[in-house]
Amino acid sequence: MFLYKKCFYICRMEESLKTIVETAAGLYQKFGLKSVTMDDVAHECMISKKTLYKYVNDKIDLLKHVLDFEYSKHGSSFLKILDKGMNAVEEVFEIHKNLIKMLKIHNPAVEHDLLKYYPIIHRELVEKKSEQVFKMMVQNMEKGIKEGLYYDDIDVELIAKQRVIFQVQKIENSVVSYKEFIKPSAVKQMFIYHLRAICSPEGIKLLNEKRNELEQN
Known about the structure:
Elements: H1 2-31, H2 38-45, H3 49-52, H4 59-82, H5 88-105, H6 108-117, H7 119-146, H8 156-167, H9 178-181, H10 184-198, H11 201-210, H12 212-215
Helix pairs in contact: 1-2, 1-4, 4-5, 4-7, 5-7, 5-10, 6-7, 7-8
């Protein structure tokens, strides 16, 4: 009986923390990280700040929970795509559509605040995302080569690293603007550029057949 009560309590704790994390994630996307206070999160969750601190230690702890939640959610959505049994070109189209959906609700202020006020957390997140994107790109290209949809003489790891630089390790200087490259139109252009560079004639046929899907997103 004691064990049952303990398990029930833990489940309640986990469910409550999930609600807090999802609520905070929504606030961060809407207002950015810096302007959202723990009072704001507690108010939006309709709980006291004292109750909030039963689940998280401080704002940094909450932020880490939010980033872990978002990372896991996006990772799960990509895994579902990989499990659908599609060919490499179809697969990368689905991943692209998923990315466009995320970009449409993404607030650039989150990235800005994370880099400016929480550089260590930002660096850790970039490392995790880089590894995720690299593995996903390598897996997709190796699959495409086996299917005859991608050229068999491409340098898989080099191209995967280039995609990591574009998608994750964003460069900002007088020539390159991060905000310019997260626009859905820019992402679509770079996506087509990437596929045209690696697709075999058979892959290009499939690419051309599926290009209409891009106009619907």
